[in-house]
């Protein structure tokens, strides 16, 4: 009986196993491949309604609810969403499913058009498709103001598009309005520096841009970047005609229909942002890192040196002074060993200081400067004592030389020179101990040269010569050629080098027009780095002895003739100096002489600098999303094809 029941159970389980195998085979044959979810959704969310109604009049409620046809989310609302008039108290903006709720915490102004500019912050929840250029408008009065002004904001020094900067209007035309009152209507620039200010009432306005650090919509901090438009603007509109085309197919035009539309002006405002020079003079710090040198660091440049008086020493003829070009960094090298062996030097320092009224006034500081001991100094002293105890004190110490860093390239440019930077002030040298020779056939011949102190760096000296292209040279300085302030001399130096051939170079000549009478041109590499600078002479800027490569150029109208680009000043109504870019990349080859005609005003400023040279790339996020989508499509298609091939092969077996 028991054996019979066991047979029944075994047959039952064998039947279940067979059924499972049949079902698995049928499923594998029917399953062609893994579903990829269908076509990707590339449609942005659609606005379907709101409370209050879009374009509503006489609105008094401060809570706004917007509804869309699908689930949405907000990207960077604090950066992208801009409300006009500006809100002193930041509004609350939240998303919930298919809705956006906005709570305005400021009291609504009477008879004013309100705009909530979302830019491209609204995207669908799944694919991130942006609802671009979406603005919600309502009015607390009985009309909607519809005027718009638009333009571009660029960084004045390099024509980079400025992203995320406020651009706004003032109907108060006084100069002080920008520094005391909040902007009345605002927009924010996109990745290309473009802005569009909406909901403007008829009238006359001034235009400003502001990187609003303190979020008060006014220029109250000198550290804030700003821009201002020189002329007053009057928003207006005109009726224009555009042609809409319908197609029978991808190649055949069906109908061309002319449609009228309203175009708002001005739409081409050009603003150039800058930071003012915030001159505030004060002593940053004084230090004595080594016994022989006192260093002073100031916040700004100065026309004169400070007055230094010793309190525990006589300062007369006590120092060799090394200073920067603007006197903002000063090193005092102590001459007398008895003086620099003192642990602490006490001194008074008199200099011009910027007070709270931004006026330069005399100020005197008292400094006590001690030598900072390096970490491990005590340990090293103990080690020296141990060595002496072991009988090593009788060993002769190695000769200590004056340290120098020679800068001699192995492949010298025909316009190059030899430089030497000393660790301490170099006080004298032996001219006859410096040798420069050129190899002629198999013999070395002396050649003339000039040796002089660098005009900017106190401890740097340069050797100049008329190099013969393709020639081989030898530089040699005998031992004890150069003597430093503290009695040390240099060791011998010797190095050979070769001058590059003229066949290694090319030349670029710019024929200029449209620039000011005083200007200079900077030759740039494709990364916007300055390679060389030349002044404009008789409408020309010539660059000789250039290595093969890719170049562009930037011209600066040097209004004050100081040889550098200068920023603007709002209080003085001074715009930053004009900058122009050559709108091409020049690919220079060896032995080429390229002559380029360049009218600096022939293109609008925002069309001059090439996108490949800009650090602020337009629509970078959108491009990345497209790349990710395409990659995901390819992965799904490959996965589906692999599954299909596998299942077909299984079906054949």
How would you explain this protein's 3D organization?
The protein is mainly beta and 653 residues long.
Q: How is this fold's topology laid out?
A:
Elements: H1 2-30, E1 47-51, E2 63-68, E3 72-74, H2 77-80, E4 82-84, E5 92-96, E6 99-103, E7 113-119, E8 122-124, E9 134-139, E10 147-155, E11 166-170, H3 177-180, E12 185-188, E13 194-200, E14 206-210, E15 226-228, E16 236-247, E17 253-265, E18 269-273, E19 283-290, E20 293-298, E21 307-310, E22 319-323, E23 329-334, H4 337-340, E24 344-354, E25 360-370, H5 377-389, E26 404-407, E27 411-412, E28 418-422, E29 426-429, E30 434-440, E31 443-446, E32 450-453, E33 460-464, E34 472-477, E35 482-484, E36 493-499, E37 506-513, E38 519-524, E39 530-535, E40 540-546, E41 549-557, E42 579-581, E43 586-588, E44 593-599, H6 620-652
Parallel strand pairs: 10-18, 27-36, 37-44
Antiparallel strand pairs: 1-2, 2-6, 3-8, 4-7, 5-6, 7-9, 10-13, 11-12, 11-14, 14-15, 16-17, 19-20, 20-23, 21-24, 22-23, 24-25, 26-28, 28-33, 29-35, 30-31, 30-34, 32-33, 34-36, 37-40, 38-39, 38-41, 41-42, 41-43
